[in-house]
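step 3/5: co-fold with iron/sulfur cluster
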Amino acid sequence: MRVSALTDDARLLRPAPEREDLGCYRTAGGYGDGLTGDDLLAAVDAAGLRGRGGGGFPVARKWEALCMADGPRDVVANGAEGEPASLKDRYLLCRRPHLVLDGLERCALMIGAERAWVYTADAVTTASVHAALRERPVAVPVVVHQAPHTYVSGEETAAVRAIDGDEALPTAKPPRPFERGVGGRPTLVQNVETLAHVPFIAAHGAKAFRAAGTDSTPGTLLVTLSAPGVAPLLCEVDAGTPLDRVLDAAGLGWTPAGFVMGGFAGGLLGPQAREVRLSYEDLLAAGSLLGCAAVIALGAPDCPVAVAGEILAYFAAETTRQCGSCVRGTQAMRDVVAQLCAGHASADAVEKLDRWGTTLRGRGACGLLDAAAHMAASLMREFPVLVHTHLGGGCAICAAEQSSPWREPAAGRFAVAIDIDLERKDAA
Amino acid sequence: MKVKVDPTKCEGFGICAELAPQVFELDEWGYAAVLGGRDVPAALEDAVRRAAGACSVAAISTET
Ligand code: SF4
Ligand code: SF4
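step 4/5: write tokens
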């Protein structure tokens, strides 16, 4: 993993490779005075901060809903980054835990939360948060809850269910957690990158926050880029920065055949997407999603059809088997793309795949089925000629793959790992 | 009236789509979803209520 700030205005990344302890965070101005209460809410609203877990929902709207809720309420800092190609949330909790806890504390006090949780999905992250809480407890009681690392464990209703002691499985909505969450109480579930932006807004105000980014996606973003042959790059960019800039910083030196966007949730984009600007609105206009801003660049060893097939196989394996449309739909889409790669798909099956890309959306209790449908639809939209070539078995990459005995599943091949030594202390 | 199908409960028996095909849409495998908004036109409310009552796994809920 490499870390690089591609902005003069880095707010989330820290150049030092060590974990930031309490002393360093305070020296950098952390846990200082700043806006509180309604002033903080107004600043978050004027800053236009949007949820960085993938949905991009306006943060101030969620906070207002919680402020208006009756009775006791809770907050969850969601760090269970389910997208295999993303590592920003784990980076923040492992290397800058105090920045997240500072944001969590300010948020909890603003909405009047009685209890808080930090929701994680691996032992290293959990240990880092515990260590930070020992250094400085937060003003409301905090419990660290570690869930299994699955695609859906970070989905907000799955998080609530896991914290309630059940399995980390999504439930049908409504109700959403802000209406009925942990223990039945209204609960704010907020991504950790989102919370990490809050101390900056509290200290410097909305105008300073908007000095970076676009009108609709103000501020900076953490982007995870992975590509064959290079170490994954985590960078902070001004929202609206062209993808090209990130590719250059990663030292790619070759033209990608396409991209997987938004984690796996934004589907595929063709090679032209290297010019796309990284913002919610630009990715949406391109038929994709910014999501958690993880990008996989596809290179010479990758056939986009085969990559779609691997990711659909991953979704078919990660379905929680709660919704019939998801169980049957992910399997069906996976099978058609596998037939394409094997060179024996029928035109009829491909037509069905195209249809499922639209008709299966919105039929599951969570976003996994939508993401799988998006993958199928984007394959057809972005790579129609390539799909056609596969109908006749004319893909050399896939033909070679078919003869190799075993292919690592997508989660394994595209998953990025965080390398961090929690014991190592800062020199300062 | 508003209606929703809980996709985690639906077993795909398709009774709802027989009783109110304008509201419940089945996928290729027979699982139901309410598409095109959760608001039920007044003329279809009775049919939706019947569907909710007929669904053997209580996957359909209505709200007035
Ligand atoms: S859509 Fe799929 S993954 Fe999501 S809850 Fe339903 S079965 Fe589980
Ligand atoms: S009647 Fe109930 S179980 Fe049958 S398809 Fe409709 S919602 Fe599903």
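step 5/5: annotate
Chain A is about 45% helix and 10% strand.
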